[in-house]
Amino acid sequence: MSSALWIAVLASALGTLLIRVLPLFWMQRRLERQGNDDSLEAMPQWLSLLGPVMIAAVFGVSLMPVTPSATSWLATLIGILATLAVWWYKRTLGWPVAAGVAAYGVGVMLLG
Amino acid sequence: MSLQAASSPTRPWLTGMSEAIPLLGGYVPVAISFGLIATQAGFSAWEAVAISTLIYAGASQFLFVGMVATGAPLWLVVAMTLLINLRHVVYAPNLAPWLTSSRLWPSLMHGLTDQVFALAHARLPQLPAAQRLGWFGGAALLAWMSWIGGTALGAFAGGELVARWALMGEILPFALPALFLVLIAPRFTSRRWSLALGLTILAALALTVTGLTNLAIPLAAACGALCFQVAKFDHSQKSEHVQGERHE
């Protein structure tokens, strides 16, 4: 890699880090200024709304199968239903994910 | 609490690592692909690993090597990389109310990817304050290491791996949507939230299917936020905000 390309890598890395860190400093200063016991109240309303919708958006993007086809979409539906069913029953983090991946895998192998 | 994953009071970093394991199903196959594509684009294996270590942002890394390979001006490569990562700007402030006073937090923000944010946003409020730093450090470190390790695997042995483990490469990434579903499901607490979150999911999926993957997250989130503001049912807006935020 040339020196110019290394600088581009470092600039992208530093920029990405600043995008992740600077808003933290801003929010921490805001929380300190407000000195509120309930820090959630100090959070701007639009910001508390953006957290859940960003996660929902990441979920929507991740639904796209690696190899899109009728089979993989059907397997995705099976995996989602299995994940939801186990989550409804267990209300834990690990088991629903394991069940979802297993159901999706079985779906891909049986339907494919 | 909706998610009651066990946490060890003495080793929160271990709890964080164990709870981040589902992320590996999505990270490793994608990182292997990145390592493979980067070497095919003319980068050496170590350069690919350096990019994953330093930039550590999936979609933008693919764009970075792709644009460099096509001979795009480097200022434009950097600008586009940062533009794609701009969505991360809302992540840390959303976690800030649960972060302790440790000076280590800013350096840990290097590991604040989409997936780590989703996991931390659900788990940090449930953990005692003393365990949060260790938990986040463990989860973020495992995710980062898996991304670097996957890149190295892809760069050094990607072609053979893809040929031999093609089916696993297709099945394991489903761990990501399964994990996000578990994280988002407890937030369907009212008609208003359900409508906003449902619309966000459908919009993100539609944008991804039509090839607008890089724009899908910010655009879909904006749609969902707008929907939440416009849709008004019986309950008061403030109480629903707090309810959704605490996902009770």
From TrEMBL, chain A:
Q: What is this protein called?
A: AzlD domain-containing protein
TM segment ranges: 6-26, 46-64, 70-88, 93-111
Query: Which keywords label this protein?
Result: Membrane, Transmembrane, Transmembrane helix
Q: Which organism is it from?
A: Billgrantia bachuensis
TrEMBL record, chain B:
Q: Does the keyword Membrane apply?
A: yes
Residues annotated as coiled-coil are none
Main localization of the protein? membrane
Transport keyword on record:
yes
Q: Please give, as recorded in its UniProt entry, the membrane topology of this protein.
A: Multi-pass membrane protein
Spans through the membrane = 20-41, 62-84, 134-156, 162-183, 195-217
Q: Read off the InterPro entries from this record.
A: Brnchd-chn_aa_trnsp_permease
- Give the protein family: Belongs to the AzlC family.
This protein is called AzlC family ABC transporter permease
Organism lineage string: Bacteria, Pseudomonadati, Pseudomonadota, Gammaproteobacteria, Oceanospirillales
